[in-house]
Amino acid sequence: MGYLDNSTITVDAILTKKGRELLARGQNEFQISQFALADDEVDYDLYNPEHPLGTAFYGAAIENMPVTEALTDESQMMKYKLVTLPKGTARIPVIQLGQTTVTLSTGMTLPIKPATVNFNSGNQSFGYTAILSDSDAAKIVATRSAPNQSGASVPQFIGDNEAAQSVTVQGMEFEITAKTQLNTARTCTVLIIGNETGGRALLEVTIKADTISGIANVKESTF
């Protein structure tokens, strides 16, 4: 990780492997249509309204913080993306799922239909990102695509071991199905993130053990 000199205004842009490939073709395929901003490196706890030198210095510590160097790995940066809301917006958009916990039997399917409140037409263009934490416990699919399905993505910042087990899909509505032949009960989560508003909602899913499968395994281990 490197740092940029924050004494001057600097724009540091690097290309991903796909971006370099498009640029190398030289056929005007490299077109920047979207971009995202984030403030990962900003610690707002440093804002000091009691600074002895007055209001001009309340945010001095924040303004003097180094800016992190750009990386191509989206799982390592831009965790706190900025969102643009219409002027005069009084409330932060909130994502609702209708429930926060659910218990499923093996093979059971549950529809997930996120809704964005406090904001008209929230996430109706780019939809939502759904991240299932454990693919061994269940599977998840998008049952309804967003109008601009390929437009936005939201990475999840988890450990390498968890990342290997997680599944990420995008859409407007989803469906989670519990895996079968589970010897023990398992717990996983489904994180829903608004691709436009940045709002999040978490669904905790408990999947019951397969009783028949469990009995068969016990008998087998007895002999």
Describe it for me?
This protein has four helices and twelve strands, in the order E-H-H-E-E-E-E-E-E-E-H-E-E-E-E-H. The chain has 223 residues and is an alpha+beta fold. Mean pLDDT is 81; it is low at 214-223. The longest helix has 12 residues, at 211-222. It is globular, with a radius of gyration of 22 Å. Helix content is 14%, strand content 26%. A five-stranded mixed β-sheet has the order 4-12-11-7-9. It has two domains: 1-82, no CATH class; 94-211, Sandwich (Immunoglobulin-like), CATH 2.60.40.
Summary tags:
5-stranded mixed sheet, 26% strand, 223 residues, disordered C terminus, alpha+beta, Immunoglobulin-like, 2 domains
Give unreliable regions as ranges.
Answer: 214-223
| Distance between the first and last residues' Cα | 56 Å
Shape: globular
Q: What strand line-up does the widest sheet have? A: 4-12-11-7-9
Report strand %. 25-35%
State the major sheet.
5 strands, mixed
For this structure, the quaternary state is single chain
Order of helices and strands: EHHEEEEEEEHEEEEH
Mean pLDDT: 81
Please name the fourth-level CATH homologous superfamily of the largest domain. Immunoglobulins
Helical run tally: 4
Number of domains: 2
What CATH architecture of the largest domain do you see? Sandwich
Specify Rg, calculated over alpha carbons: 22 Å
Structural class by sheet pairing and helices? alpha+beta
Helix share bin = 10-25%
CATH class of the largest domain, named Mainly Beta
Q: The CATH topology of the largest domain, please? A: Immunoglobulin-like
Question: Using DSSP, what is the number of strands?
Answer: 12
